[in-house]
Amino acid sequence: METLTYFLPQVWFGILALFLFLYVMLDGFDLGVGILSLTASNEERRGILMTSLSNIWDANETWLVLMGGSLFGAFPLAYATILNALYIPVSMMLFGFIFRAVAFEFREHANRKLFWNIAFGTGSFLAALGQGFALGAVLEGIVVDKAGHFVGTTWDFLSWQSILVALTLIQGYVLIGSTYLIWKTEGELQETHYKTAKLAAYTTLIGAIFITISTPVFYQSARTKLFEAPLVYIFAIIPVLGIWLIWQLLGSLDKKQDKAPFVWTILIFVLTFIGLALVVFPYIIPTEITIYEAAADPSSLVFMLIFVGFLIPIMIFYNIYQYIVFRGKVTSHQYGGE
Amino acid sequence: MFLENTVVLSRMQFALTALFHMLWPVLTTGMGIYLVIVEGLWLKTRNSDYYYHARFWSKLYILNFGIGVATGIPMEFQFGTNWAPFSEAVGNFFGSIMGFEATWAFMLEAASLGIMVFGWERVNPIIHYIATILVAVGANMSTFWILVANSWMQTPAGGKLVDGKFIISDYFQAIFNPFMKVSILHMFFATLETSLFVIGGISAWYILNKRNAAFFSRSLKIVIAAVILVAPIQIYIGHLSAEQVYHRQPAKLAAMEARWQTIPAGESADYSLVALPNDKAEKNDWELSIPNALGFVLEFKQKLSEPVLGLKEFKPENRPHLVGLIYYSFRTMVGIGFALAGLMLITTLQWLRGKLSTGNITEQKWLLRAWLFAAPLGYIAIDTGWIVRCVGRQPWTVYNQLRTVDSVSKLPPSNVLTTLICYATVYTMLLFAALYFGSRIIRKGPNLSLPIPGIESQPALDTKPGEFVPDERPVEAQQ
Questions:
Q1: Which one of B92, B117, B170 would you mutate to disrupt binding with A, by most A Cβ within 10 Å of its Cβ?
Q2: Å between A294 CA and nearest CA of chain B
Q3: Coil, helix or strand for A218?
Q4: How far off is chain B from A234, nearest CA to CA, in Å?
Q5: What is the 8-class DSSP label of residue A40?
Q6: Mutation choice for B interface testing from A48, A57, A72, A250 by most B CBs within 10 A
Q7: What is the model's pLDDT at position B468?
Q8: Taking Cα atoms as reference points, which of A149, A166, A153 lies closest to residue A204?
Q9: How far apart are CA A213 and CA A236, in angstroms?
């Protein structure tokens, strides 16, 4: 039983990390394209940008719903405390989602499309900003009592560190959005996004450097963890690998490659994600509550594992099938519903 | 003042967001089944009318779907943001079920929808039909899990509360809790019936205006044929549902009937038709009722075999308030259920008399107007039904186990008030925008010149699979 109480929460931590990663990667480029659409110069371009997402945005967003539902079931305390603490950034994200989602449907039927384009772009920005604040606040730690209940104030999320994380995350989304557009578009539009990708790669890099330095400098708990063996070796490798990946990304942008920039960006996301997961683990409400304390009853974790576990490969399969069906470049702003 | 009370504000926000969200999945579940039927008919008969029906109605479908997703995501997160103690207490079961809804239902629906809406020219008709079926299956599985979760809150089973947390000993008993089966059927038929009357009402509008009358007679007749079954079944399931409330949630039944005094077993009682309930005085200020009818309504016989408990039987802190709201919501829902069944009967009669044939149907002006008028009624019945179910459950979130006041997150009232105002504003705008764009799609009408897959292969979506372009740059530049 002892091993079970450790093993099951770890399995669920892994599953949640997978869902969150898939969300950040897939909806990351959706949100990035949304933010980029604010800078698109004309209606036709904005149309192509939105068309490139029309068939996949809701499936991509669903990974977050999946993450939310599974967090609720697997770590109820973490679901309750984190969302309670992050009332403001989470609300920002939710309103951002609302604007973004309806803009897709309404724009299609509107005569004056500009209004809905702006709703789409600002909605994407607002959602990304809310997520950035939330991520920043969680990494920084949430004020809880002994039982793990939130006892801070709803403005705790706002700090220099969380602003830095939010800005960096937005840059990261713009980067993956740009490389997605490089993959899905051609001609002049593709040219533009080679430029935006390059710019975003630099700004993301600067943000990442700041975060890498400020986290161990300002946070005692991160510091003790980071400089202990064996993690210290991993944390020494991550920045080196990161710089090598960015080097490869910039190279592929210079060579005007089609798909490679997107792949390099995904690898950069994977690396960052592994780094963050290792900093956080085994805590799920940093810096106090571990996954073992927040986990649901073992019977509940087993029950969920049976009913959800076997669906994970199936879900991934039919999502991939979707991408195969809609492969190829988007060349016109035709929405395609008609 | 309620503006300084987080419990009241969070309840208002949940009620607003839930009642508004509820309006959209209605069509995605019910119309989803209709789309499976028309696409199936097309594949079987190859009659292009059915194909154009699938294309036309799916435009309204996707408009609905977008708003359903947009308003549904806040529901998923609201349990944590506004109801953290509740989430922590029920996470073992309720949280798992939310996880199941996302994995079983939501993802299946979202991933198949892309192919259903944009994939006509990209996949072969059988794959497309599978996608359409999966969208309908996903949407209805969502109804299934949500109703499992809500029924468990009404009649918790399969475990007990230990140190403020529900420990589940038997998950299947928890899933198949006493309310579960009837509640799922009631909601399934509610979405189906509402969708059918929406499709019927819009079809009636076209026929009234003599636009594509023959085309829309087809959808109207499919709807009538389905409603002949659905409307009476729904009334019967509704009755079963009320019977369950009678046995398991007597305080809710008392509020539904605005009954303050207990009626002992073996007696007969009046059935209240119109009343003016007074919470403070614990009586109805005024009432109009049918003598001796309550026994017939509840048990199909005059004398009650079990007592009907009155609200006064429960301490004020253990019974629902807002009795007038519950009482009238219940009557509105039931009234609509019977009105729709009545319209079905009259329409069937006219059909049997041959009045709905292609030549005659446009003459049935009043009947068609009645159908148009009936289109929004199902939505009202669904929302009032949920008011009865959840306001009637008060003061509990988990019936008789966890109180609403103990379920709410400790948040500054100003935060909740701000989000409440934002939701109210944004959702009002969404409602008007949806009605505006929806009526725009309807006014534009079906596009009967779309290419039919398998006949002409002209891509409807202007994206094409990547072509191989030989790299002509010097070898050094190639990588």
A1: B92
A2: 9
A3: helix
A4: 31
A5: -
A6: A72
A7: 52
A8: A166
A9: 12
Q: Residue B1: its pLDDT value, please?
A: 64
The length of chain B is 479
Output the pLDDT for position A335: 47
- List chain A residues with CB under 8 Å of B119: 55, 325-326
> How many angstroms away from the CA of A130 is the closest CA of chain B?
14
Q: Give the type of residue at B59.
A: K
In chain A, where the domains are located:
9-324
Give the residue, B140 or A50, on which the prediction is more confident: B140
Q: Which of B88, B433, B464 sits opposite A76 (nearest CB)?
A: B88
pLDDT at B470: 53
Span A89-96, mean pLDDT? Answer: 94
- Among A26, A55, A112, A255, the residue to mutate for chain B (most B Cβ within 10 A): A55
pTM value is 0.88
Q: What is the pLDDT of residue A334?
A: 53
Q: What is the ipTM of this complex?
A: 0.86
Cα–Cα dist B42/B55, whole Å: 11
The structural domains of chain B, with segments of one domain joined by +, span 28-178+427-454, 189-411
- A308 with B99: Cβ contact below 8 A: yes
Q: Around B299, how many Cα atoms within 13 Å sit in the side-chain half-sphere? A: 17
Residues of B in contact with A106 (CB under 8 A): 433, 437
Structure tokens at A314: 């199936």
DSSP state of A289: E
The two counts, helices (H) then strands (E), for chain B are 16, 7
Block residue for tokens 């669904």: B382
Size of interface A-B (CB pairs under 8 A): 259
Asked if A59 lies within 8 A of B440 by C-beta distance, the reply is no
pLDDT along chain B (479 residues), means of 10: 83 94 92 92 88 90 89 90 91 89 87 86 87 92 93 90 86 91 95 95 91 87 93 93 89 88 80 82 81 76 80 87 91 94 91 80 85 94 95 91 90 90 93 92 86 60 49 52
- A136-140, A334-338, B56-60, B265-269, range with the lowest pLDDT: A334-338
Pick the CATH number of A9-324 from 3.30.410, 1.20.1630, 3.40.50, 1.10.238: 1.20.1630
Instruction: List the one residue out of A229, A197, A198, A226 whose CA is nearest residue A212.
Output: A226
Chain A nearest C-alpha distance from B95 (Å): 4
d(CA B220, CA B371): 10
How many angstroms separate the CA atoms of A186 and B455, rounded? 31
B263 phi and psi angles, rounded to 5 deg = -105, 120
The helix (H) or strand (E) run that includes residue B393 is none
Q: How far is CA A80 from CA A5, A83, B79, B171, B406, in A?
A: 21, 6, 8, 22, 14
